[in-house]
Specification:
This protein is mainly alpha-helical. Helix content is 65%, strand content 5%. The protein has nine helices and two strands, in the order H-H-H-E-E-H-H-H-H-H-H. A two-stranded antiparallel sheet has the order 1-2.
Length: 242
């Protein structure tokens, strides 16, 4: 499956099963599901209400959810079905497929920058490293806040623990990205040095070039008897008239 298709497909499947997981706790309406999904993930992947209701319609079409009446405010509630529970259990047990990784903009950018005219790929790497480290620092500060909320043990402890797990995944991800950028820069330096060494003449080539005779100079003056014979002779002095 192509990378772009895979990334969209994976996000859609995550939302689909995320909504099922929330509905397993009891019937809910669309905007309530959106709020709880974003609370559980710290709004890392924000949803809009239209996206939630589109997903609910597909879940209902597939028999995974069913209308569950209305609440006191008139909101249409949705409830998970037994088929939906089975689908959710299978999702929890199934490892996430890593055979076709999602498309990554940074990887594509560096791949396109290699050999591109007028592009300093090391400058691209350095700019990205700065942004990546800043993001890692921001995530770390948020982690401190999430840990404090968990230790306080308030009524939202479950959401805080979930947000903490998401934050730690983001921290590890940015750490790995920073290490990869360092590795990429070192790799480019080594390849550049190798190319420079290949361009330099080897010792044997340098010796051969030094041993080659120099071509004769076109302006070199001939010497020897032949040259004397060819040279113009002075005119004989004329005898005076008597």
């Amino acid at each position: 499956m192509p990378g772009g298709t895979y990334s969209v497909y994976t996000l859609g499947m995550s939302i689909r099963h995320g909504l099922l997981a929330l509905l397993e706790q009891g019937p809910r309406y669309g905007s309530q599901l959106r709020t709880e999904f974003e609370s559980r993930t710290g709004s890392t992947w924000p949803l809009n209400v239209g996206q939630v209701y589109t997903t609910l319609a597909r879940l209902e079409r597939d028999g995974l959810v069913a209308p569950g009446g209305e609440d006191t405010a008139g909101h249409t509630l949705y409830a998970i079905t037994e088929t939906g529970r089975a689908e959710l259990r299978e999702w929890y047990a199934r490892p996430v497929d890593r055979a076709s990784p999602p498309r990554d903009e940074l990887s594509i950018k560096l791949a396109m920058a290699v050999g591109a005219p007028g592009v300093d790929i090391r400058a691209v790497i350095q700019a990205q490293r700065h942004a990546t480290i800043k993001a890692m620092q921001d995530y770390t500060r948020l982690k401190v806040q999430a840990l404090a909320a968990v230790e306080e043990g308030d009524s939202r402890e479950r959401d805080d623990v979930a947000w903490l797990l998401v934050l730690e995944q983001l921290i590890f991800q940015t750490e790995a990205e920073a290490r990869w950028l360092d590795h990429s820069e070192s790799r480019l330096v080594r390849l550049s040095l190798t190319a420079d060494r290949r361009a330099e003449p080897t010792p044997s080539q340098a010796t051969e070039r030094a041993a080659e005779p120099s071509p004769p100079q076109a302006t070199e003056r001939a010497v020897g008897p032949a040259a004397d014979a060819a040279a113009p002779q002075p005119r004989a002095a004329r005898s005076p008239r008597s």
